[in-house]
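chain below, 65 aa
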Amino acid sequence: MLKETNMNTLDIFIEKGKKIGIEIGKLDVVENLLRNTDFSTLKIAELTGVSESMVNRILNQINGH
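prediction:
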C-alpha cells in the first residue's frame, strides 16, 4: 500500500514537472515571437495560449522596464 501511495505521489510530481516545462516552453516562444516578429501582443497571446498581460510582462522585461 505504501509503495502504491509513493508511486502515485511520484506520478503527481512528474505530471507537475511536465506542466511546468510546458509553461516555460510557452514563455520562451512568447519571447521569441516578441523579438522576431511584428505580431501584436494580443496575437501572440492567442497563438501561445497565455494571457495578453503575461505577454506584456515579458515585453516589459525585454525592454528593461
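Residues 7 and 51 are 34 Å apart (CA to CA). Helices lie at 2-36, 41-48, 52-62.
thats it, cya
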